[in-house]
Fold this sequence. Notes:
Bound molecules: iron/sulfur cluster
Number of helices: 16
Amino acid sequence: MTSDDPIAAKVTAGERLTAPEALELYRHAPTRLLGRLADAVRERKHPDRVVTYIIDRNVNYTNVCVAKCTFCAFYRPVGSPEGYVLGFEELFRKIDETIAVGGVQLLLQGGHNPDLPLSWYEDLFRAIKERYPSFKLHALSPPEVIHLSRLSQLPVPAIINRLMAAGLDSIPGGGAEILVDRVRKALHCHGKASADEWLDVMRHAHRAGLRTTATMMYGTVETDEERLEHLLRLRAVQDETGGFTAFITWSYQPEHTELGGTEATGIDYLRTLALARIVLDNFDNLQASWVTQGGKVGQLSLAYGANDMGSVMIEENVVRAAGASYCMDEVEIVRNIEDAGFVAKRRNMHYERLGDPMFREREVPRMLELATARAEGETPLPGELANYPARSRAGKQLRVISS
Ligand code: SF4
C-alpha cells in the first residue's frame, strides 16, 4: 500500500474510515505510511506543535482485589499478608509531595476491595477536598464504579452522583482492556465489567457532566479485528456524548502474571497508536505511554499520532509489578518533547494549558525514581478503617485484631 491508495487518500482528506478500510490499512500499510497518516491527523488537530503533559501522581489506594484478572500482577487476594490499604494521612502526605513538585491532581485507582464501603471513598474524597480545595481527583475507573454499585446495591448513576458530591472530578479510562466480551471472558475480566457495562459507566459519567479518558490494553489474546472493534466502540460513544478527553493505549506487560506470554514490540505499539489516531477522529488527544514503552518509544510516539506525554506520575505500582519500571521526571519529559521538535506545555485534566515547564519557573527537586504505594515500615492497617464495616471474613478478623 502507498500514499496514493484510496484509503490513505481518505485519511489525508480528513474523511472517516469504515471498519473494513481501517483493518485493511492496519494490516497492509507500511509502518512509515501509517505514521505519516497519523501524524497528519495530529497536525490537523494540533497545528501549533504543542505537546502537553500533566504533573500528577498515580496512586493505588489498595491492592486487595476480588476480580483476579489473569493479566494482572498487581493485585493480592483478600486476606493476603501482602495486601494493603492506604490511610488518609498517607494519602495527604502523597498529595503534599505532589503539590511540592507542581502537581495538580491524583490519579487514584485500586483493586476491588470488599472491605472498603462507599462511605470510605466519600469520606476520603471529602477530606481531600477540605484540605486541598483546588486539587483534582481523577479517580475510580469504570470497573471500580461497578464494584461499588454492586457492593452498595445502588445503580451506577447514583454511585457517580454520590462520588461527585464528595469531590470526584473525572474518571480515568482504566479497566477497558479490550472492549469485546470474547476477549474479556478469556482474560477473566468479564465479571468485573462487560464491554457494555464499561461503556455505560462512561455514558452515565458524561451525562452527569464528568469528562473521562479512554484506554486500551492490547497484546493479550485479541485479534486485529477485536483491537479495531474496541476503537470503533469508543468512537461510537464519543459521537454520542463527546465526553472523552483523550485516549491512551499500552501493551500488556506479562511478567509475574497468571496469563504469561510475551510483550508486544515497539513497532506493534507505534502501529496500534497510529491506527487509533486515524480511527478515533472525534478524540482531540492521544497520550504516549512512556511508562510501558520507555522514554525512547514514548518520544517516537509523537511522530505516530500522540500529542500528549501523559503524566510525570511520581509513583507507579501496577506496571512495575508486571516488570516495567521506567521513570521520567518533568525535566526528562520536556527534554524528549523539545528534542522531537515540539513545544512543551503543562496541562490540567481537561487538557487546558497551564503554562511552561514548572522547573523553568521555580526550583523543583529532580526525581530519578518513581515512588511506590507504601514506604517500608508504614502501618499495614490504617486506624480509620475501624470506622468502616468489612464484608470479607478476613477483613472482619483484621478489624477485630486492630481495634
Ligand atoms: S486489573 Fe484491576 S480489577 Fe483486575 S485483578 Fe488487577 S487490580 Fe483487580
